[in-house]
Write a structure and sequence with these properties.
heterodimer, A: 529 residues, alpha+beta, seven-stranded mixed beta sheet, 16 helices, 22 strands, 31% helix, 23% strand, B: mainly alpha, 13 helices
Chain lengths: 529, 306
Amino acid sequence: MPTPFDGAPGASRGGSPPRATRRDVLGLAALGLIGSAASPAHAAAPAGQLTIGVHISLAPTWFDPAETAGIITPFLVMYALHDAMLKPMPGQNPAPCLAESWSATDDGSVYDFVLRQGVTFHNGEPVTAEDVKFSFERYRGTEHATMKERVASIEIVDPRHVRFNLKAPWPDFVTFYSSATGAGWIVPKKYVEKVGDDGFKRAPIGAGPYKFVSFNPGVELIFEAHDQYWRKTPGVKRIVMRVIPDESTRLAALKRGEIDIALSIRAELAEEVQNTPGLTLKAPVGSAPYWMYFPEQWDPKSPWHDVRVRRAARLAIDTKSINQALTLGFSHLTNSAFPENFEFYWQPPPPVYDPEQARRLLAEAGFPNGFDAGTYTCDSAYANLGEAGLDNLGAVGIRVRLRPLERASFFAGFGDKKFRNIIQGASGAFGNLATRLEAFVVKGGTYAYGNYPELDDLFAQQASELDRAKRQELLFKMQQIVHEKAIYAPIWQLAFISGVGPRVAQSSFGLIKGFVYPAPYEELALKGA
Amino acid sequence: MKQFILRRLGYSLLSLFVLSLTIFFFVRVTGDPATLLVEPGASDADIAAIHHQFGLDRPLIVQYLLFMGNLARGDLGQSFYYQMPVSELYLSRLPNSLLLAAVAMSFSLLVGIPTGMLAAVRVGTFWDSAGKLFTLLGLSLPSFFVGLLMILFFSVYLGWLPSSGSGTALHLIMPAFALGWYFAAAHMRLMRSAMLEVLGSEYIKLARLKGLPQALVIGKHALKNALTPVLTLAGINLVLMINVAVIVETVFAWPGVGRLLYEGVSFRDFPVVQGVVILGGIMIIAVNLLVDILYAVIDPRIRLET
């Protein structure tokens, strides 16, 4: 029998009875409208225009959830234009959105979703189970093969009730459906079939808080408020996303009031925002931890094979000072190579900066005078972090040369396992701890240069474990081993710094944990509106 | 004459072929576009799906032949990033680049010609030195530096002009100046040297001996002859301006083809880079061909020598 739950925070997935904690209640209070009927909370009409200076060219593929790539940037648009059955929201991940409630059988092989009543797309058509099924079946974005392989069939029980039958129990189904893919973001079947995929990208229709108005590719995208949005009537009538590639120009536009929000302002210019009256900085922390990786730790002839050397490298990095210098202290210092906001995250001890201890460890490992450690390879966009790391390592005797590579070349070389010595990397890939471990730690992982058998064993066990508590225990153990073996030397979870102008009352930055763009859009507000 | 034109046409087509080969292969050396469309940690299946979608899993020679076949039909392919025809993207941006280039060219001629004339007529004086300084700065200061300085002063400090974007005549001023200064410097130098050469010629000496006013000697007799090489260069530079304004368009967020090229390079959007470079190449080669033919028409010695 399915175990029903209305998406209350703390409710478990895969069969255990729901439990509500005090944090859950507070979370629900913060959410306010979650679980309520589909009527906007505010009846006040949207007003005003808010302009966002965007750092990256806007692509029409972002208008179509079916083509969601495994990067965060499409969600800048998707949170405005579309809505999902479940998605990360303030205080809850995942939160029921188009789905009013969902339930799963004890063995996690059947998932039932009940749609919220009265929700419509921008063209007035109701959101139905047909649209949910259609949206899943047409999904061809990141991890679509995984989703399609694991879902046996989708039943339309009634117009508001859809059932996913899995081929086998899959504990991560909700993670993948709600945040690791775009399969749960719903588009209108009749409209898409009428206009086709290309037509849909030219004039997209969704169920989100904002309607598409116009798009000049690479230049400007305009939305208007969807007054009948189920959760809340948006406060701002019109949102304009204007592409301004150059950071200094974006800042100038913000200072002149030509834009209200300037995305992606880095440290040197961020100080300028801090020093300008009327402007504020917002710096939500994303889901991308940065770390140093030691690809030679499996080579007995390499100094990196000795765990003391790796621990010495970890102790040598003054992350606090680097954070202050490069991101004005906004990044989150971490001792884990995995995102804190991910499901099954294990909290390690806090990071420690101790160059003296680092030197002692190196001496114990047989390197009292340090050693020449070759190259420190990194994405050139973060060469400034590499330079700081290089200096810190050099101070304890680990002498390296910086080798910054252009992004595509860096990730290609990383994945092809061409790099040696030290690699500075990061990942913002969607998923949960299991998916991250699979790619970066476990044997055969795209970016795993070697493996430890005990970790592989634990990973295999957790993959088939349906009991959430037991699975968590296994994943915690894996993270503990990663920490003890110093497979990675974590640096930080990067803060994405943006500037906000004086007209903005609520910028929506930081409302959704791990999401670096303004969202939910219906929360945006202008002063005096 | 016919043989001359055919020969020149042949060289032009050969140049285009070499250009297509070069840009096709060099753009692929830059890396895999799929890696920029996924986060590290993405599955091999996701990356393979992107390769298949873009036809990048085909052998390189097959890709090239398809590219050339489509090019012959006027099809520049589909942008990887924008998922729309490159020709559509290009044509939507071209009018903006033409407008910017026209204004920048007007500025470069309105400044370059008079200052070149003045420097030549007042050679060795303060005006000549001022002209040389103008030229030196115009040729050596990078356009992005000029652009950012202008934004700082005229937009942020003085608040006179919008910092970026397009839409009004005010939006044009700074990018046109940043783009046009380099060419104004080039036109000024050429004008100066052409004027000096003309002012030293026998017919000018005769005009002065005849007692014609200095203004008439310079403004009518000397200027007309000195202008020819400058206008020739200006015609070629106009086409260059349309295609090389990458930095200026990016700094000022001007929606032109230069910025489109920047976006294509940033995202490893092979069809966009190929399309913009090929179309730019066609423009430049066509203008050079036209100039060669016109020269041959004006001066028969050229077509006989070649």
